Each structure stands twice: as C-alpha cells, then as structure tokens.
C-alpha cells in the first residue's frame, strides 16, 4: 500500500507539471485509455480524443500556474484508488488578464499495464461566485 501511495503521489505531481506546462500530450500519458475528464462549466470528455480536445481548448485559452495539495490517497484494492486534492495558484488568460485559481479535485485512479493512471477526474472551484 505504501508503494501505491508513492506511485500515486508521483502521478499527481506529474499531472501538476503537465498542467503548468500546458502540455496536452503529457496530460494524456497520465490517463487510462478509457479516461473521463469532468471540468467545471464544460461537457464531460470521454476517451482519449475527447480528453485531448478538452485540454487543447483549455490550454488555448489559459496558462495555469498551480500547486496541488494532496489531501488523501486511498487505495481501494490492487486495481483502484482515489485521491482528493486542492489546488491553488494563478490563471493567465491568453486574451489578457490574470486571476486566482483555487479548486478542489477528485481523482479515481486505476492501474493500467502496471502503472497508476487517471481513470476519472473532476474539479470545481472553491472561489465564491462572481
């Protein structure tokens, strides 16, 4: 179980790095082949092509600079786990301007070919509505 938590921590850190680099290809490497991405205010993206399009669209609009705080990692069995995180930082709009970025996230993780991957991911802002 400790090895799983270490591997999942590494996965989440890699996800943070990929987001901050605006790298769709790096993000996709971290998802399962049947992954699901549920971003606040967007339609659910199911599967590699839809996830790639969602991240491409996101990275075309914004540049993120965020840090993840890993609140909990719970291995369920040898195949599934979940992780709960909080992230904070800044978002730079490509159209100009900058704002705070503060979210809570839930990851459902699954082992695929021996490696932990993101099977389902959703997030929501914890900032008050404007």
From TrEMBL:
It holds the Pfam family DUF4440. Signal peptide: none annotated. InterPro entries: DUF4440 (IPR027843), NTF2-like_dom_sf (IPR032710), Steroid_delta5-4_isomerase (IPR011944). It comes from the Eukaryota. SUPFAM superfamilies: NTF2-like (SSF54427). CDD domains: NTF2_like. Residues 8-118 form the DUF4440 domain. NCBIfam families: SgcJ/EcaC family oxidoreductase. This is DUF4440 domain-containing protein. It comes from Hyaloscypha hepaticicola.
């Amino acid at each position: 179980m400790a090895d799983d938590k270490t591997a999942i921590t590494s996965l989440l850190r890699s996800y943070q790095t990929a987001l901050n680099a605006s790298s769709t290809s790096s993000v996709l490497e971290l998802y399962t082949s049947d992954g699901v991405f549920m971003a606040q205010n967007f339609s659910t993206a199911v599967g590699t092509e839809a996830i790639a399009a969602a991240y491409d669209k996101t990275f075309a609009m914004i540049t993120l600079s965020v840090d993840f705080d890993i609140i909990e990692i719970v291995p369920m069995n040898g195949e599934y786990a979940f992780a709960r995180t909080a992230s904070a930082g800044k978002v730079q709009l490509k159209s100009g301007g900058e704002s705070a970025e503060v979210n809570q996230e839930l990851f459902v993780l699954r082992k695929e070919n021996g490696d932990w991957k993101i099977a389902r991911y959703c997030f929501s802002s914890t900032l008050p509505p404007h």
